[in-house]
Amino acid sequence: MQRRDFVKAIMAATAASAATPAALAQQQAAPAAATPPPPPTAPGPVPWMKGLMEAKPLPIGSLVADSVARSDARFLTERQFSTLRRLCEIFQPPMKGYPGALEAGVPEFLDFLIGVSPAERQQSFQAGLNRLDAEAQQRFGQPLAAVTAAQADQLIRPWLRTWMSDHPPTEPYENFINLVHEDIRTATENSQVWSDAVRRSGKETPNVDLYWYPVDPDLHRDGAPSLALKSTHTKA
Question: What is the 3-state secondary structure of 137-160?
Answer without folding.
Answer: HHHHCCCHHHCCHHHHHHHHHHHC
